[in-house]
Structures are given as C-alpha cells and as structure tokens.
Design brief:
The protein has seven helices and ten strands. The chain is of the alpha+beta class. The radius of gyration is 18 Å and the shape is globular. The site of molybdenum atom has 6 residues, from loops.
Length: 264
C-alpha cells in the first residue's frame, strides 16, 4: 500500500476531510486476521472483549476487513439469474405498531422519513421524495448470522443522496443513526455512509418492498451481516457520538453482544 494513498473524499457538505488509510489502519497488528469474522456465531469473540464500536475486537475486525476490501471496495454483485426464488422474511415481519399499521393501510402515502441532527437542512422526506432521488439497483447476497443467505435485487436511494437532500452533513458528523418502527437502531460510520452500495431500498426484485422485508424502506449495507440491514426505517439522524443511544455500543445488535462492525 503506498504511503500517499488516501480514502476517497466525497463532498458531505461543510468541510470534506482526507483521512489517510494508513492512519485508519495504523492500529492493526498482524493478529488482526485471527479475529476476522464472518457472520457465523462461532466466530464471535468472547464477551470479555465484546464492546460495540469501542471494543478492540471491532477495531481489529473492521480494520482487517477494510484492508482486505481496499482493492475491491464493492460487495459482489450477481446476475438476475442468481436471484433466489424465495427470499426469506426474518425477524420482525409486520410491526404491530399502531401508527405503522395506519400508514400501511394508506399505502404509505403519509409516511415520512425525518432526517435530522448534524445536517445543514433537517427535513422530512416522503416515499415519493426518496424515489425522486438518484437511485441505485444492485443484486447482492444477504448473509444472516443465523445461518442462511439469499440473493436479491434491491433498488433505493444511496444514503449519501439522502444526506445531500438535507444539504449535506455539518462538521462533527461521525455516524448516521437509523431508527426502526420496531425499536431497533444502528449507527453506521461515514465510511459505510458514503459507500455506493449503502442504499435505502424501496424496491426488491423489481416490486415494491414487501411488508415482510421491511416496507416501505430498509437499509442495505451490503458488506455487513443481515442484522445490520435494518427494516421498517422510521428516522435517520446524524450525530457525533453514539454514547447516548441504548447502551452506547453503537447499535442494538452490539448492545446485545453482537459485533458492531459485522463484516461479511
Ligand atoms: N427492524 C428490523 N430490522 C431487521 C430485523 C428485525 O427484526 N427488525 N432483523 C434483521 C435480521 S437478523 C435479518 S437476517 C434481516 C432479514 O431481512 P429479511 O426479512 O428481508 O429476510 O433483517 C434485519 N433487519
Ligand atoms: Mo439475521
């Protein structure tokens, strides 16, 4: 890796900063590879060193993953003929939340996604607003930590486009926190936020996103395990710290002891 290589910079509003990849990886000793995880439960590290995004295990797995991915930054994309005929619905498949049920009955016409926090212009987007943003379609493998995977085609607005619609992020922005109707939340860092395959998907295999798969809008975070791919999105906010969310580990799954950085 050349010394002068830097992470790509993308205009996120206020003050784009170059982060040297070397700086990002400087904390990775050779043993990082030992802790490289897939989604399998077997590879989860013992609770002692579990600590959400501040834990050493996450620093190692994330840095190692990113080192390995540096020459192939996109998750693999497949052909239409690879699409699974029966993609599962898993976990929450129809939130009982009363407001959600009302929005669902009305075809999500009144559904809104508030975008708040460290953005230039906080706003609330309708589904149509989101569909009018530039979109991306990708055929990818979903890998659930509970032992299954399946390929589907997803269409949605890159998260970066959603933030751009809010005028970009302001200085100090470090994480985007996504909340869901069923009370899940996850924080993802800017590296994942600006990744071209990080999309808020409203279509699956060419149809509106089915209820069971997270209608009307779900996160696709293609380089991470199933549990980071939040369904039933309710709001997004940009923050400088995850300390005040849940147990402060960066997301509900790491609050429960799973890795915060759940690289596939
Ligand atoms: N809001 C919410 N998002 C969620 C879940 C959930 O229960 N609630 N389950 C997660 C898990 S563990 C997986 S594997 C995928 C399942 O997505 P699918 O139902 O489209 O198969 O959603 C993830 N996102
Ligand atoms: Mo999962």
């Amino acid at each position: 890796m050349s010394k002068t290589k830097t992470m790509p910079t993308l205009d996120l509003g206020a003050r784009p900063r170059r982060v040297s990849r070397r700086a990002l990886l400087s904390s990775v000793p050779a043993l990082g590879g030992l802790l490289l995880t897939g989604c399998s439960r077997d590879t989860f590290v013992p609770p002692m060193v579990r600590g959400g995004l501040i834990g050493i295990a996450d620093v190692l797995t994330m840095s190692t993953n990113r080192l390995l991915l540096s020459g192939q930054p996109l998750a693999r994309e497949y052909q239409p003929s690879d699409i699974a005929p029966d993609f599962p619905t898993w976990g929450q498949t129809n939130p009982r939340d009363e407001k959600y049920q009302r929005l669902l009955r009305a075809g999500f016409a009144d559904w809104r996604l508030p975008v708040s926090g460290l953005v230039e212009r906080p706003l609330s987007l309708s589904l149509d607003d989101i569909k009018r943003l530039p979109s991306r379609t990708q055929i990818t493998a979903h890998v659930c930590e509970q032992g299954w995977s399946a390929i589907a085609q997803w269409t949605g607005a890159p998260l970066l486009q959603v933030l751009n619609a809010a005028g970009g992020v302001t200085s100090g922005a470090r994480y985007v926190v996504l909340d869901t109707v069923d009370g899940w939340y996850e924080g993802i860092d800017m590296f994942e936020v600006v990744h071209p395959q990080t999309i808020l998907a409203y279509r699956m295999n060419g149809d509106d996103l089915p209820i069971g798969n997270g209608a009307p809008l779900r996160l696709r975070l293609e380089r991470q395990c199933g549990y980071k791919n939040l369904k039933f999105l309710k709001s997004i906010q940009v923050v400088d710290s995850m300390a005040d969310f849940g147990k402060g580990t960066g997301g509900i799954n790491s609050d429960w002891g799973f890795h915060w950085y759940a690289g596939v």
